[in-house]
Design a protein that fits this description.
By secondary structure, the protein is mainly alpha-helical. Helix content is about 55%, strand content about 5%. A two-stranded antiparallel sheet has the order 1-2. Strand 1 and strand 2 form a beta hairpin.
Length: about 325
């Protein structure tokens, strides 16, 4: 089969030209052979697996624009629905007892919920609370393509300064080398400042925390190069600390929901309720984290880097505009 198909390739070949109809037949034969082999392997894996395995149907997909045919996989939400029902049956539960929730918003999960659980059993599907938390934070903290439509332009500008600073560290190999060397001299190790993942907006919290922990090192880095540390200009320092303190609790909910050992929807409900009643309540004080203290030699204490950040309690009226809770709380309620 493959020798015959080589005849269709450009260049010298000892094989004769193949008619188009024969090429089609060979492609079909190749598809059938491939599908048979893959399906056989898949069935063997499912048969021997100790736990249910989700699998896909392999089929030929035709592109509407070009008419080209592609060997691809077709998702089978029906398989997922059967496994959900089997697990419920195993524990003696009815499908109507299910309060569905997910740590993902994949199309297969949506399809099972909208086309299976809801029409057949009246079970409503809740969108991923981790995704909702990220969207509420994005909305409440002023992230918008159009600055005029931002609900918190001060926070938007402050976070932009932070992202630009981290970007400068990563883009300039010379600047980064000096930063790493300074960390080794002062702390005895190199701590990476992670970039924010744009599609996971609350990963910005990890960036904020690392900048706060390395604050003294960053200030010395800029001082040694004859520059002013931009995050200490004006009230930038207070803004960074208060923003981090307000973003950290919602971020912990997404962390526990996505990376916990066995995240439960009821637990996420409770944590969201606590956020609304405490951290996001404008009448409540805010626990504001602070920069690790300097040691007796006026250098960062290496041991302090491994401890929880120090903090103080600040009344809502004393917070900077960037950390006001009004916009954030409104977004969280919605």
């Amino acid at each position: 089969m493959f020798k015959e198909m080589m005849a269709t390739a450009a260049g010298n070949t000892p094989y004769p030209e193949l008619p188009a109809e024969r090429v089609k037949d060979l492609l079909v034969e190749m598809y059938i052979a491939t599908k048979k082999a893959v399906m056989s392997n898949m069935l063997e894996e499912v048969k021997n697996a100790p736990l249910p395995i989700l699998h896909h149907m392999i089929d030929i997909w035709t592109d509407k624009g070009s008419g080209r045919k592609t060997l691809w996989e077709r998702p089978r939400p029906g398989v997922l629905l059967e496994i959900v029902k089997a697990i419920l049956h195993e524990f003696g539960l009815r499908t109507s007892d299910l309060a569905s929730g997910t740590a993902d918003s994949g199309s297969d999960v949506k399809s099972v919920s909208f086309n299976g659980l809801h029409p057949q059993f009246g079970v409503l599907w809740n969108w991923c609370f981790c995704h909702l938390m990220v969207k509420a934070a994005e909305d409440g903290f002023g992230t918008h393509v159009d600055p005029q439509k931002s609900k918190n332009p001060e926070a938007r500008d402050m976070l932009k300064k932070l992202i630009n600073l981290v970007g400068t560290l990563h883009r300039s190999s010379n600047f980064k080398a000096k930063f790493d060397d300074l960390q080794v001299d002062v702390l005895g190790e190199v701590l990476k400042i992670p970039n924010q993942a744009p599609k996971r907006w609350l990963t910005l919290v990890r960036t904020l925390e690392r900048v706060i922990r390395l604050w003294h090192v960053l200030r010395k880095l800029y001082s040694d190069t004859g520059k002013t540390f931009p995050l200490e200009e004006g009230d930038n320092k207070d803004c960074i600390l208060q923003l981090y303190s307000l973003l950290q609790p919602p971020s912990s909910v997404t962390r526990d929901g996505q990376y916990g050992g066995a995240p439960m929807l009821a637990d996420i409900y409770m944590k969201c309720g606590m956020l609304k009643m405490r951290v996001l309540d404008p009448s409540e004080e805010l626990k504001v984290f602070d920069i690790p203290p300097l040691g007796e030699d006026s250098l960062p204490d290496r041991e302090e880097q491994k401890k929880a950040l120090p903090h103080k309690v600040v009344a809502h009226d004393d917070l900077r505009p960037v950390a006001q809770k009004r916009a954030t709380n409104s977004a969280a309620r919605s």
